[in-house]
Amino acid sequence: MDALIAMKATGPPDEFAYKMNLSRSMLFETLQEMKGMGVDIRYSIIRESYYYADSRRIIIKVSRAAEEKTDNFG
Predict the structure, then answer these.
(1) 54 with 43: CB under 8 angstroms?
(2) Which of 6, 26, 27, 36, CA to CA, is 20 to 30 A from 15?
């Protein structure tokens, strides 16, 4: 989603939803959640694409937690 918005390559809402494998209503809910977190996402009628209006983004980082050491004695 981030890459498509950053490249201004989302297409109109129906196409964007299709690209993301989301329903149109779920796409709008997701965009609203992002906007609620302070990301300024707008839609250009001329380009027919969503775009970021400033440099704010949501960064999600996934990392593996340290594994617990266990002693296996027989």
Answers:
(1) no
(2) 36
CA dist 74 → 61, 70, 71 (Å)? 38, 12, 9
For residue 60, the model assigns a pLDDT of 80
State how far the Cα of 42 lies from the Cα of 73, in Å rounded to an integer.
Answer: 60
Q: Note the pTM of the prediction, 2 decimals.
A: 0.77
pLDDT digits (tens, 9 = 90+) for 45-65: 999 999 999 998 888 888 888
Domains delineated in the chain = 2-52 (1.10.10)
Q: Which two tokens mark 20?
A: 């993301």
- Tokens at residue 39, please? 């990301």
